[in-house]
Amino acid sequence: MPAPTPVRARKPVATPRREASLRKHADYQRVYREGKRQSLPLMTYFFAARKAPEATTLVGPAKPARTQTTEIPAGSRVGLTAGKVLGNAVARNRIKRRMRQAIRHAQTELTAEVDVILHPRRTVLEAEFSQIERDVLRAFRAVQLVLKPRCDADSSHGN
């Protein structure tokens, strides 16, 4: 009987929470409609504070009324767009990979209940990665500064 081969333990991979990213078209539209827009050299970003989930009553023909609440996970969520104006699929995917990595490094700076959408510019392709990280960090810190008075006011009313 051959000797059993040792099983290697896999190293855990640090992946962002699935809830930490914007996924639905309606969420993107809400941020564009209700949020603010700012620009940096490598990107434009949009952000909007999230509200508490609202209960909606669904009434249909021959159906009793029922209340549905939308589940919104706590914390911040980040979305990323890369339209065809940025280049072909290879260029867009490279831009998205670089931006996602920079977002992972800076995600801890974003503690407010906020949705952020990043629109990178084509210059992200040629930029140094440290410059991309710096701009993402600047964007997240700016969002925190804008929302900090609102977060402090909300917490003081609860006491």
How does the SSE layout of this entry go?
Elements: H1 25-34, E1 36-39, E2 43-49, E3 55-58, E4 66-69, E5 77-80, H2 89-106, E6 114-120, H3 129-157
Parallel strand pairs: 5-6
Antiparallel strand pairs: 1-2, 2-6, 3-4
Helix pairs in contact: 2-3
Structure description:
A hairpin with a 3-residue loop joins strand 1 and strand 2. The protein has helices at about 25-35, 90-105, 130-155; strands spanning about 35-40, 45-50, 55-60, 65-70, 75-80, 115-120. The chain is α+β, with helices and mostly antiparallel strands and about 160 residues long. Helix 2 crosses helix 3. The chain is globular. The strands form 2 sheets. A 4-stranded mixed beta sheet has the order 1-2-6-5, with helices on both faces. It has a two-stranded antiparallel ribbon with strand order 3-4. It has one domain (about 25-155): 2-Layer Sandwich (Ribosomal Protein S5, domain 2). About 35% of the residues lie in helices and about 20% in strands.
Give a nutshell description of this structure.
By secondary structure, the chain is α+β, with helices and mostly antiparallel strands. Helix content is 36%, strand content 19%. It has one domain (23-153): Ribosomal Protein S5, domain 2, CATH 3.30.230.10.
